[in-house]
Amino acid sequence: PHSVPLPRLGRGGMGGTQSLALPQAKGPHQVGCTDVMVGHTQQGLFLRLFYPCLPQAAPEHPLWIPRSQYFGGMADVAQRSRHWCAPLLSVAIGSCRVPVSWNGPLKPCSSGYPLVIFSHGLGAFRTLYSSVCSELASWGFVVAALEHRWVLWSPWCPRGAAGAPVTLPSCHCRDHSASTTYFCTAEAGREEWIPYRRVPQGQKEFYFRKQQVHQRAEECVRALQLFEDISSGKSVPNVLPQDFDLSVLKDSVDLTKVAVMGHSFGGVTAVLALVKEPRFRCAVALDAWMFPLENALYPEVPKPVLFINTEKFQTPESIAKMKRLSSRNSQTKIITILGSVHHSHTDFTFLTGKLISRIFSARGTLDPYKGLDITSRAALAFLQRHLNLEEEFDQWDNLLEGIGDSIVPETPLGRSNL
């Protein structure tokens, strides 16, 4: 529960003004957005793509929570009754839209945009980090925000006669780390929804989460392979009925400049992805939950990591794990944003007003717009350094040393809410 990025239900007054606005990206590019689902089984990939796009006169802005089923999933993660919580969430945030151009035309780039694969936190899904993903896209990145659901064999997965995994509705081998997700079967119009799964009773959390984080990291690698296929000219049909043709990405993504990024459980997923895939040149971990990474893997992390922590989440044990990595690689950085809480890296931090405050407790004392600026600028400086970009993001290099307003190097210990 401590790693779940969805806000807990809290107390507060009703009424008052409220804002459902997510921030407009500040970079020089307009941002387009589309959903991509590849394959008709739960082994397929599902992601939301953010990319620089051509300006449009009246762009369509997609809903932030794309389907009503996600409200039930959010209620499950918050351990609240779907009967009352899901409708309340639907009323409170169901009209919120993301200020990007839905299926907007890609802005061509002959040199290719660098690519970031983004991994969500436990109990989240592909749209809950739209603010940071669209911000990076506005500065010239293609960002693929995964929705984790891939099947991988596990010791708890039933086996068939030939040793192959048997897919069952309740099979433990599914990742189940999104609040809910779905895939489209080969039967036209039919969807199968996959629920969020808690640690099974009697099973140690470390072993369960270790299995999940390995599955998630493998899925990040498969997402990179998807872009390799597109760049090589392979036909990659999108199962979803979208107007966006993936083949337009063929010559506009630079696959020599690829990073992986994530929040919480997604943060440690990003670190592990560096071990599994040498084409990932660096990782940005937002308030990483380091618990699931086995000790034997720390010496195996070959590339630099930028840990951007919040003031109220990390424990001394988690920071010690991060320092094990920074002691092995001088380019690995650890910084903490003061006045922030674990959910400050999610879009929930921008939902204001007393009605919303009654449902969510997702804001620290720091202005969320300032927090997003610090996060995105530090990430951009780090990505420029390790992807060898010819931009001016190095103007924010001081943030990587923890120098600046509302930021410190490493962490002020003793303030965790864990």
UniProtKB/TrEMBL annotation:
Transmembrane segments: none annotated. It is an enzyme of class 3 (hydrolase). Pfam families: PAF-AH_p_II. The active site is at 264 (nucleophile), 287 (charge relay system), 342 (charge relay system). InterPro entries: AB_hydrolase_fold (IPR029058), PAF_acetylhydro_eukaryote (IPR016715). Keywords: Hydrolase, Lipid degradation, Lipid metabolism. Its EC number is 3.1.1.47. The keyword Lipid metabolism applies. This is 1-alkyl-2-acetylglycerophosphocholine esterase. It comes from Podargus strigoides. It comes from the Eukaryota. GO terms for molecular function: 1-alkyl-2-acetylglycerophosphocholine esterase activity. Signal peptide: none annotated. One of its GO terms (biological process) is lipid catabolic process.
